[in-house]
Write a structure and sequence with these properties.
Length: about 450
């Protein structure tokens, strides 16, 4: 019984989960916050003071590769802000892979809004740069301060020098750029061009059901943590997004294929398309504890303990069962035990109090010939119905018994039924019933 219950609980806990082992989480990094000096530049365009540059990383398990960011008729790619996105009109690019390293020293080009799969510059001097979290960047910086031309106002100290603690490590200390030995081959760029918010369009949203960015596969600069940069977004507003990605997993779980799709909504595991709540931003808060009824598997990492209110209590919630549990709030019908119907379990163990508190019957002689005696004990109600059924469930004999004792014996005439195996059931007027088998010779 214990093994059965533990197996059921394991199935219940995992029933709402999808095979999203390849994605560990999505990280939104505050890369930079622009200041008044940055806002003086007119060459790159109108960058407002207080605009935040965000970088979005997808963290995968080691050895996995991100191969595609996409949308299709069932899975839209959505990127929003409550204010317009900033695009550098002088050196800006739609895709991070097309940015030259030298252009990042000019005006506010390093804060441009773009998409990518890891890569942040073209190949330069034999090196190709990729995005890395500033907290993991240990090779210094070639962006901002003395590395910047000061923009149209020729600021002598250079631009991008703000050290606002809300943006973490200053860009002049760590630029979030590093080289990688894993340089992907680009295969497809579709549905995202200069007419979008990543190009020359002034706007606050991108929504598409046809966009695709695909390469041979990118891993993180740090292979152990394996974070791959997918977007840089600069805006004074609050951002939100829904992403869909394809991942190559060399070591998939069980029978899952190597190529797996992860979507923000409308997953279909039968087609290896798995809904991953991490791909929706901002995080949805709620109860993340599977031991509570309020557990919500659509939450992507924001745990609100106050949302966990009702601890799950498994048990039989059928009042007619001998093991009815009034404290249970999650019914497991297969655990319910009834006289004559207790699965492969011993009813005397499941319901140890049954003998003292439940109706019992004893039939004799068994096998019988023309007469069958039935003794009924622990009767709690005056009106009782005795019914004989054949093995097909057809009712053959029915007797109403009025009793004034909790222990009676009643004789059943079997002369009208043929030889064979039969069921006899006794039911009181509260619906409590007990069934037994007998044989007529």
């Amino acid at each position: 019984m214990k093994i059965y219950l533990l197996f059921f609980l394991a199935l219940f806990i995992n029933a709402s989960l999808v095979a999203q082992d390849a994605i560990k989480k999505v990280i939104v990094e505050n890369y930079y916050i622009s200041d008044a000096n940055d806002a003086t530049d007119t060459t790159g365009g109108n960058l407002e003071t207080g605009s935040i540059t965000y970088r979005v990383y997808i963290q995968m398990k080691p050895e996995c590769k991100l191969t595609k960011i996409y949308s299709d008729p069932n899975h839209a790619l959505k990127i929003y802000s409550t204010a317009n996105f900033f695009n550098n009109k002088d050196r800006g690019k739609v895709f991070g892979k097309d940015i030259t390293k030298s252009s990042l020293s000019e005006n506010t080009a390093a804060l441009d809004t773009w998409l990518t799969i890891g890569q942040t510059t073209t190949k330069s001097g034999g090196k190709t740069y990729f995005g890395i979290l500033k907290s993991q960047d240990t090779d210094g910086s070639f962006i901002g301060g003395v590395n910047n031309d000061g923009g149209s106002a020729a600021i002598t100290s250079g631009l991008l020098t703000n050290n606002d603690p809300l943006a973490g490590i200053p860009l002049t200390v760590a630029d979030g750029m590093d080289t990688s030995v894993n340089v992907p081959t680009w295969q497809l760029l579709y549905g995202i061009d200069d007419t979008t918010i990543f190009g020359s369009k002034v706007g606050s949203e991108f929504i598409s059901n046809t966009a695709v960015i695909q390469c041979s596969g990118a891993m993180g600069v740090n292979p152990d943590s394996n974070e791959v940069l997918v977007a840089q977004l600069t805006t004074k507003g609050e951002i939100s997004f829904e992403l869909n990605v394809e991942i190559y997993d060399p070591n998939p779980i069980g029978s899952n294929p190597n190529i797996q799709d992860y979507v923000a909504k409308n997953g279909n595991p039968a087609s290896s398309v798995y809904r991953c709540p991490f791909l929706t931003y901002p995080p949805i808060c709620g109860c993340l504890d599977k031991n509570y009824k309020e557990f919500n598997d659509t939450i992507n990492g924001c745990n609100n303990h106050d949302s966990c209110k009702t601890l799950i209590v498994f048990g039989c919630m059928d009042p007619n069962a001998c093991n009815y549990d009034p404290s249970a709030n999650y019914n497991i019908q297969s655990l319910c035990c009834y006289p004559g119907m207790c699965g492969d379990r011993d009813i005397s163990i499941v319901c140890p109090n049954l003998d003292n508190h439940r109706m019992k019957i004893n039939v004799y002689p068994n096998p019988a010939i023309d007469k069958l005696n039935i003794n009924i004990s622990n009767m709690n109600f005056e009106n009782t119905v005795i019914t004989v059924y054949n093995i097909y469930g057809d009712k053959l004999i029915e007797k109403n018994v009025n009793n004034n004792s909790d222990n009676i014996t009643h004789e059943i005439d079997l002369s009208t039924i043929a030889k064979g195996v039969y069921y006899i059931r006794v039911e009181d007027n509260n619906g409590v019933n007990v069934t037994n088998l007998f044989v007529k010779n």
